[in-house]
# Entry
Amino acid sequence: MTARRAGLVACTTCCKVHHPGEATCLRCGSPLHSRDPAGLQNVWAWWIAGLIMYIPANIYPMLRTASLGHETQNTIIGGVFELIAYNSYGVALIVFIASVIIPVGKFVAIAFLALSINRASILSARARLHLYEVVEFIGRWSMLDVFVVAILSALVQFEFVANVHPGIAAVSFALSVAFTMLSAQSFDPRLIWDTDEADPT
Amino acid sequence: MDVDGLIACPACDALHYVVDVPNNAQASCHRCEEVLFAPKPDAMTRVVMLAATALILMITAVFFPFLDLSAGGFEQRSSVLDAITAFSDGLLLPLSFAVAALIVILPALRLIAILYAIGPMMIGYAPARHATAAFRFAQVLRPWSMAEIFIVGVAVALVKVGGLATVAIGPAFWAFVALVVVTTLNDTVMCRLTIWKTLEDRSRY
Ligand SMILES: [Zn+2]
Ligand SMILES: [Zn+2]
# Structure
């Protein structure tokens, strides 16, 4: 039995159950929705904003390194190749996962979850909930590369010898990560279960 | 229908009767297996202690030197504050604010909100005014507190400059590592549902 089928409204912040008609939770004060009607729309709006920001993040330089009067620029992928050139395979893999695999996987996963609502899906509801939890847990880690750029820019300031400055891609990448986090947070996982509402539990 | 004896799973909306869950045990949703209750003994005291420790570590981490870099006769000492202000030239200024918010301001606010919501209940009985709003705020801030990601970022940055310069790790780095450990401990001790119920029970005196 679910709260919705019982004609009740549940708070997703503190789990308290309410009679319909209550606008905010009596225990914690969060806004109450049986299912937020604008929720899915917000998911897509943030998703698109995140995708738009992800494009310049990959084209423009993330890092500008000036060494003895000669400047090199590095994109996200360029930074990964540079680490491979230094034989730092492990770290290259971490950066590649955080800045390429996680963001791309997140776009695909959120779109898949949003599209699977009210349809028969190839994944069970429980599997889709796990997918959602993984997206929520791991998505924040994409911010890693932005922090690396910030730390390098602060550390490497040696006049002519070596100088590191952040590039414009750092801004669009940070925005892209923030927007996809908002997209995932707008998704109401309870929608996943509404399709098989007919089951007897 | 008496709704006070019921809770609904936040992940799948399944209804459950509220039962007493013993300390160190867990109660999960029968439908989606989400952990609903995970009470720990003396949780309130431990949460407050850990949050206070984390806040002190945070202050240490921000103001003490973080890393010490030397190359070709130059030496560069930087604190977390320097990393934050690295973006401060022109167009990238908003990014400075964002980095400051994610690694220092939001984690600090979250710790203060937890202390404010639970601290008075640990010392006395009744929660402070607006304690529920403070605890809700702490819950909203959780995904945006990225101190642990920052630490991994430092490690990656160290590898990147490894060929270029010699790096010495400062006290603030260890303070930050400790901060991450303490915050993780805090999140495992804190059972949100138990705290919400306690806040509610003790608000109506
Ligand atoms: Zn609530
Ligand atoms: Zn559930």
Remarks:
- The pocket of zinc ion (ligand 1) is lined by residues A 11, 13-14, 16, 25, 27-28, 30 (CB under 6 Å).
- Residues 38-198 of chain A form a domain with the Butyryl-CoA Dehydrogenase, subunit A; domain 3 fold (CATH 1.20.140).
